[in-house]
TrEMBL record:
UniProt protein name: Proline--tRNA ligase
Renumbered residue ranges of the record's region Disordered: 41-62
Record has Acyltransferase as a keyword: no
This protein's UniProt keywords: Aminoacyl-tRNA synthetase, ATP-binding, Cytoplasm, Ligase, Nucleotide-binding, Protein biosynthesis
Organism: Actinorhabdospora filicis
Pfam families, alphabetized: HGTP_anticodon, tRNA-synt_2b
Amino acid sequence: MGKPVAGGPGILTDSMITVVDTVRPHHAKRTPLMAHLPDVTRQSTLAHRTRREPPAGEPSRNARLLERAGYVGKLMAGVYSYLPLGLRVLRNVEGIIREEMNSVGGQEVLMPALHPLANWETTGRQDMDILFRTKSGSADAVLGPTHEEVVTPLLATQVASYKDLPASVFQIQNKFRNEARPKSGLLRGREFGMKDMYSFHLSEADLEEYYERVAEAYRCVFERCGLGAVTHYTYASGGAFSEFSHEFQAVTPYGEDTIYLDHGKGIALNKEIIDRYPADEIAAMEQVTAIEVGNIFKLGTRFADAFGFRLPDASGVPQSIHMGCYGIGTTRLVGAIAEILSTDDAMVWPENVAPYHCHVVPMDAGRLELAESAAQALAAAGHSVLLDDRAVRAGAKLADADLIGLPHRVVIGARTAAEGLVEYTNRVSGRTVKVPVAELAAATAA
């Protein structure tokens, strides 16, 4: 499993702080120190609001919840904006994926979303129905639904010798697919985020070895995102590229795909390939619905051959380059987590992807000072904290806290505050305890 990447901005010096302070207007009110702590956010400062009711006409649970809870805003069919809370979730998901791709030697790049149509004509895929077509000056162009047509000629300019292989590059970028019927909220859109990685190998055997390493990294991604227990490595059609591809399918009653599970053998099959197997074997398997949260393909030499990407091996014999591609829809994964791990009226984010770890909720203004102490204690223990300092009814605060769905909740009411205590709830396990602020951080770790 990949490790968090160390590093970050440099340390502020006293002189820097002095310079910042001297340009503050004399009439400006100094913000309390806690507002400058990177791990505590006052809810009153967020560009965020919840809705009492889910959006009308939205059938998918993930979109109903995410819009109602103020994580995303729908612009049009299949296109969403990410609000502050939603963007924090997306960035956390991307961070996990980035760490795992780094762990298998992936190198991050960023390629254009605007592609010359000529590249797609080179591979014979220019007539795909999902292509958004446009112009780049007078030249025909498309918005990229995937990047084989860009990454292959790009790497051909960077790899000069067989000794440079294997090579693997990935990006996290928005894709565009002209879906006839975008549906299921974030699960199937016309513009969406994706991590797409491409690997290049001198032999099929080398590709096979790397392919298995990436499959294991994918398992780590979904485990860290809270879906490991329900996600199955699933055999699916390889299309024009190979006999099989492999999907990572997360089981849910709300899934779009049908898969068959053999629990004894640890095998999962996509419905699209069951006609390749004896009917009695399929009948003995469990049929379930699922959401595809990732896929990996062995592309063979098709794309390298189309662009003339060949290299001489150690004997000087020119060899076609074997490629693999590995995709995870980042925004789709956010939608899948919301779909699978929430209820109809409440989010329950896993800690690794939650926008904040802890939600501190004082029931009235008289408890705000104790709430600030609780927030500071949690932040000092390494937690990110959302402090609900809004002047709204206690019932509205609790309803919003359910919708927002942070994994740790601290409620401060008059009775517990009078006893010098706060009420802590782990929303994943359901455990609730009353503790003093000094013991709050320990309670979150229990």
